[in-house]
Amino acid sequence: MEKSMAKRALLMTKAADATLNIRELGVLPEDAFTKYQNVASDRAMRRLHKLKEQLKKYAGVNKKAFEQYNNFTRQRDVLQKRREGLDKGQESIRELIDVLDQRKDEAIERTFRQVSREFATVFEKLVPAGKGRLVIQRRTDRAARAPGEETEGEDSGAERKEGVENYSGVGIS
User: Fold this and answer.
1) pLDDT digits (tens, 9 = 90+) for 106-117
2) Backbone angles phi, psi at 57, to 5 degrees
3) Would strands 167-172 and 134-138 be described as parallel, antiparallel, or unpaired?
4) Which InterPro entries match (predicted)?
5) 20 to 30 Å CA-CA from 161: which of 45, 89, 111, 155?
């Protein structure tokens, strides 16, 4: 029993030494545990000592650099996929904004045409000899003509598909 206890203590010491050696080696490849599982222990120990001597040449090298490189590469890949997803999301949001802006402009144009028609009808009833109409004034129209000057075809603004942002107001002609 004493021999068994002594042998056990010796094996525990060797196991602790082997664990320490593994830590000193740095990160082991993923297949290291399966690759050397069926190798005889004396042969593995000889190989370990030989490799340990060879590793002494590289004492100043960062032993965790490979693991860090792999981690950073995985993180970069995850971040690139995430960026692609965000870019697609941003593009779809921009498309939605464009569609909503177009619908808003169309609704304003449609409402203006209806109001303009009703204004013309009411104006003819109030002033039988005259005609009246509502005119959308645009920033570009104001800059292109002198004050008080009229431009043909400006009654409903339906011909131009500029955004509502280019409207400066409504006038009466």
Assistant:
1) 998 899 999 999
2) -65, -30
3) antiparallel
4) P-loop_NTPase
5) 89
